[in-house]
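Progress narrative, Year 2. Work on MFS transporter from Devosia oryziradicis advanced from sequence curation to structure prediction during this period.
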Amino acid sequence: MLPMTSSTLRPAVPLLVLIIAGCIIAAIGNGVRTSFGLFTLPMTADLGLSREQWGMAMAIQNLAWGIAQPFAGAFADRVGTGRTIAAGAALYGLGILGMAFSPNAGLITLTAGIVTGVGIAVCSFSVVMAAFGRSVPMEKRSLIFGVATAASSFGQFAFAPISQGFINAFGWQSALIYLAMAILLIIPLSYALRGRTENTTGQADLPFMQALAKAWGYGSYRLLVIGFFVCGFHLAFINVHMPAYLVQCGLSPEVGSWTIAVIGLFNIVGSLLAGYLGGRLPKQMLLATIYFSRAVAIGLFLLIPVSEVTAYAFAAAMGLLWLSTVPLTAGLVSLFFGARYMGMLYGVAFLSHQIGSFTGVWLGGFVFDQTGSYSIVWYLGIVLGLASAALHIPINERGAPSFALKPA
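Result:
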């Protein structure tokens, strides 16, 4: 196991304050982001957008998030987490505000896609977890990562009905303005996460590209990164297209919003459980189990006629499996490479996740426009879940030797 730094035990503020602030940031950032699927029907109807055009904007948002994430993580590692998150929140809010006043597909792609996506990356819970990885002892990181993930899930649970209520009461444009204002609350909270990762005793200090090359040469990390693609595919497709899918099946938009909320509620339990079990059981086997269980849950959902009961049951099952991959994946990255490169190398893994998100969101819109149905994408989700489960089984849960400091 890689040794901890002395700075790992000395955050700039009391550890409890840092954790609480980080969890609130994660809840606001993720809660707003996961509400965007509720805007699918009103925005496409009012702006005359096709489902593919809307899906492309959301897909580009996920891709921009993924591409920016390694750089945001590296920037936070070098410059400081608090500054990074504050800048990201300002950009995130600006993107949502621009989204509210975008009259066509091109501007929606720019504001909701590129600007918002980059803003999400720079203040995302991935950056928050880098601060936790710097400050929390190794043996407790998996649990604290689970707490942060659960907090982001609570944001999803809270913001889904709030956002739908805003849409119903004030219209989608005003609802987006209110969400942009909520994002700005992150800026003062970011002060508690100030500080940057210092060099780790017993661990080499490597330049960005050299560290990335050495990490990619570690086989277990490659498998982890490739498998994380599937997580993004599942989450983004369901989050963006599930509300519209349920309306297509004859249910109300309110059922769609509460389905997203139920996913967030049950993900609190799933994330905490994954964080707890990650400190006691092999993380790679837990990840394989999660991906396999997702495939089973999707298969059962497709076999049983859709109703409010089955929608909420599926949401509960997926909620338990939703972001439970995150504390385990982040825990493995931290174990492989230590806290020194946590922001950057988890960011690279997250890029794979977001490429999966791009694929899931865009493919959902494209397939629907071509066939009038989401069935092909649902079935593909089953296949990918089984493939990811198989990829995680060979992962070795040990530190990467190439990141240890060579003796003089």
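The mean pLDDT is 85. The first helix runs from residue 15 to 33.
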